[in-house]
Amino acid sequence: MTVHESTRRKLFLSDIDGTLMNSRKQVRAEDIEAVREAHRQGVVIALASGRMHAEIVQVIELLGVPCYAICQNGADLVGLDGNVLRSFRYEADLALSVQAFTDEEGLVPVICSAEGNFVADLNPRAVQVGKRFLTPLRERRQLAADIADGMPVTKFSVYGEVPALQAMLERLRERFGGRITASFSDPDGVDVMPGRVDKGAAAEALMALLGIGPADTACIGDSFNDLAMFRACAHSVAMSHSPQEVRRAAAHAADTVALALREWLAEE
């Protein structure tokens, strides 16, 4: 692959699920090579995902290049050396209130922290949900008590039927307003974050840290939790299979990460 080289420092941010990684937890060989080639040309690479850092590390190892990590939709920004550069957690009272809204019949709420992903009951439906994670989903039966005692919560991921999730989203937004940030992150999953915590804010923090402006930053994603990242970057790309609303919010569309990278770098 030949990509036009540029002397300007650049930043490329990629979502993982549905973008860099397919539903079978595979990454295309052409995408791996495109990321490696961009890194060889001096492009800074960052992965921006709803996943926790331990999961993102597995993808970084597969890519074979150093990457910054925006974890759990911006709850943590992790440097190339694995040190946390920026971190946000729920206040205990807000986390307890949100948990009560997500603990409904028919839904599978997953409580996420930097240490792991937890459910109160590892029942068959929760086990099925757990298969999408790259680290084991763990049972923690006294979650409410643990949260009250100071368990650090980064986000809630809630899975179920779309109508039930949409209704839950409406109730959450009506009750909490700007105290939370909530959106679909999977076709059957919603992420609920503390207010003003999202991939876009983390991307802006990373740009400031690196001294790279939005004009020299590109990002790619496929879901509603990527929209804030689209707004933060001058060159935003939606995967071609994204929902129509997501495609409309991006400046460009592409079938693969490799194609998005090539087209962006060839513009210079």
Automatic annotation (TrEMBL):
Hydrolase found in the keyword field: yes
Listed SUPFAM superfamilies: HAD-like (SSF56784)
Pfam (any one): Hydrolase_3
Alphabetical list of Gene3D superfamilies matching this protein: 3.30.1240.10, HAD superfamily/HAD-like (3.40.50.1000)
UniProt-recorded Gene Ontology molecular function terms: hydrolase activity
Keywords, comma-separated and alphabetical: Hydrolase
Signal peptide start-end: none
Family annotation (NCBIfam families): HAD-SF-IIB
Official protein name in the record: HAD-IIB family hydrolase
